[in-house]
Amino acid sequence: MTTIASPKTQWLIASDLDGTLLDHFSYSHQPADATLQQLESAGIPVILNSSKTRDEMLALRDALQNQHPFIVENGSAIFIPAGYFPNKPELAREEDGYWVLEPGAQRQSIVDFLHNDGESHGVPYLSFSSASNEEIVAATGLNASEAEQANRRGYSEPLLWRGNEQEKAAFAARANAAGFATLQGGRFLHVLGQTDKGQATKLLKKTYQHYTDRSCKLIASGDGPNDLDMLKIADVAVIVRSPSHAPPELPHHPELIVTQETGPLGWALAIQDILATELLPL
Fold this sequence. Notes:
Elements: E1 9-15, H1 33-41, E2 46-49, H2 54-64, E3 70-72, E4 77-81, E5 93-95, E6 98-101, H3 107-121, E7 125-127, H4 133-140, H5 144-151, E8 156-161, H6 165-177, E9 181-184, E10 189-192, H7 197-210, E11 215-222, H8 228-232, E12 236-241, E13 256-262, H9 263-277
Parallel strand pairs: 1-2, 1-11, 2-3, 11-12, 12-13
Antiparallel strand pairs: 3-4, 4-6, 5-6, 7-8, 8-10, 9-10
Helix pairs in contact: 4-5
């Protein structure tokens, strides 16, 4: 493993939120707070990469005291604080103080597909776009305000699947044929454009690399199947153990850590182990 303290290397950490930096049940991030502060002091950006929406991520970035770029809706868009890099990336547009890269699809095109598909094949799921706020609260465990944020989506549609696995596979095939992708998260099946957390992370890493002479290296952490694309491209992959499902399989990765503890405690201990091994002066 490359020495993390090398002045020739800029390390980046891309991290999932639910079940990784946030506790699966309580959504607490407290066990990770001290490690996050250490990373900030050491100049190692933590890039939040989640299925969550922009509004949800903005609130969580404030809570986590994070000022770095972030990736929303399973790799559908990258939000970079304006001025974070010396100039705006070539393909980015400006929106509310952010430079935005959009490898994903617009939500309305996904909703249109769901409407047409549902007329032909039925609707064995609850979609956020057709759900009441009360139904989203019941499905997610969020409070009413948080549920509203979760439904202000720009690039994807979460489905609470109520059919069987055969129906889900057939639906996924139809979505793919229409130019969309499906990703199974911890609770929801997400319909989105032909992107994923890994593709968006690669694009953001490339953007970092464009503005530095140092070699950018990546640590990625997550707990679910929708994190695998991000974990596969990492120099060091951290699978955070979940209390609700088995760790996703990532065979043949050269630098793989599977935590013993769950959630933000497991994340923090794994990151501390990496830092201690690599002798990073914190």
